[in-house]
């Protein structure tokens, strides 16, 4: 489903992704760990076509990401579920409206929107917060809203960059549990994180990056963390 083939991304003189090759199958749950500056976010930005690469190829299903036009990339991104550390919710829209707006953007049938918003709010446990605005929610609740938004259009691939970075351990665990649930439903999950404890608990595939290179790729984290 995802292939990186000798991907190079250079900022200035430095290779931030240095011949990165990897392959991720449908329905896998893959964590990417590594110290700050290792290239985790760059890996994700290049995967979604938000950053251009200097060499190599990136393929996601039938999409040749690195040679697509900006317009084609916009369509491609609408098929993904993307979650960031800082939630990126619209402050002037309430929880339900944030999700409905995202559905509208990706062409979801309007007559089904209300029902789908209710469904995903239930999945993340926010059914009683639909009318609240982001500023009225805790960090964990905001991230759950962002997850509900990311999964509303039923994407086959969920990409999360440090989704627990601003959260207390308990909320972080809840967010991880949600990602695991989504993965059990069949979606592929790619998670970039610093949080070794959570990754350890996951017991799923872990790719470790250092200085733009993949230094290990193991079926389970437990061996060495
Ligand atoms: N737009 C940019 N221009 C120049 N250098 C950049 C740019 N974006 C990232 N970098 C550099 O690329 C390297 C990798 O950054 P990246 O954000 O991918 O790391 P990361 O592994 O996600 O780190 P963190 O754990 O802190 O989020 C860093 O050294 C960073 O300074
Ligand atoms: Mg990062």
Structure explained in plain terms:
The protein is α/β, with parallel strands linked by helices and 225 residues long. The protein has two domains: 1-72 and 155-225, P-loop containing nucleotide triphosphate hydrolases (Rossmann fold, 3-Layer(aba) Sandwich), CATH 3.40.50.300; 81-153, no CATH class. It has seven helices and ten strands. Strand 9 (205-210) and strand 10 (213-218) form a beta hairpin. Helix 3 runs parallel beside helix 5 (139-151), helix 4 packs across helix 5 (139-151) and helix 5 (139-151) runs parallel beside helix 6 (169-184). Adenosine-5'-triphosphate (ATP) is lined by residues 11, 16, 34, 36-42, 162, 194.
What's the helix and strand layout?
Elements: E1 2-11, E2 14-24, E3 29-33, H1 40-47, E4 55-60, E5 63-64, H2 70-77, E6 81-84, H3 95-105, H4 113-123, H5 139-151, E7 157-161, H6 169-184, E8 188-192, H7 196-202, E9 205-210, E10 213-218
Helix pairs in contact: 3-4, 3-5, 4-5, 5-6
The structure holds adenosine-5'-triphosphate (ATP) and magnesium ion.
Spatial extent as radius of gyration? 17 Å
Biggest sheet statistics? 6 strands, mixed
CATH topology of the largest domain: Rossmann fold
The percent range for strand residues is: 25-35%
By CATH reckoning, the class of the largest domain would read Alpha Beta
Count of strand segments: 10
Unreliable sequence segments? none
CATH homolog superfamily of the largest domain: P-loop containing nucleotide triphosphate hydrolases
H-E string: EEEHEEHEHHHEHEHEE
What is the mean pLDDT? 95
Tally of structural domains: 2
CATH architecture of the largest domain: 3-Layer(aba) Sandwich
Our count of helices gives: 7
Overall geometric form: globular
| Strand order, largest beta sheet | 6-7-8-3-9-10
> What small molecules accompany the polymer chains?
adenosine-5'-triphosphate, magnesium ion
Structural class: alpha/beta
Indicate the percent of residues in helices.
Answer: 25-40%
């Amino acid at each position: 489903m995802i292939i990186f083939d000798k991907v190079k991304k250079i900022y200035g003189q430095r290779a931030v992704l240095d011949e990165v090759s990897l392959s991720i199958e449908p329905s896998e749950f893959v964590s990417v760990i590594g110290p700050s500056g290792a290239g985790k976010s760059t890996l994700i930005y290049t995967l979604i076509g938000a950053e251009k690469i200097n060499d190599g190829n990136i393929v996601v299903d039938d999409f040749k990401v690195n040679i697509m036009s900006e317009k084609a990339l916009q369509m491609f991104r609408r098929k993904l579920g993307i979650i960031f550390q800082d939630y990126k919710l619209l402050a002037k829209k309430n929880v339900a409206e944030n999700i409905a707006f995202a559905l509208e953007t990706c062409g979801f049938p309007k007559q089904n929107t209300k029902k789908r918003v209710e469904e995903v709010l239930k999945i993340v446990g926010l059914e009683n917060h639909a009318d609240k605005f982001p500023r009225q929610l805790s960090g964990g609740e905001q991230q759950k809203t962002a997850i509900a938004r990311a999964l509303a259009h039923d994407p086959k691939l969920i990409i999360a960059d440090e989704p627990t970075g601003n959260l207390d351990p308990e909320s972080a665990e809840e967010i991880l549990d949600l990602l695991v649930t989504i993965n059990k439903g069949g979606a592929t999950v790619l998670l970039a994180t610093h949080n070794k404890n959570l990754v350890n608990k996951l017991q799923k595939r872990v790719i470790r990056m250092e200085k733009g290179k993949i230094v290990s790729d193991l079926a389970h984290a437990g061996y060495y963390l």
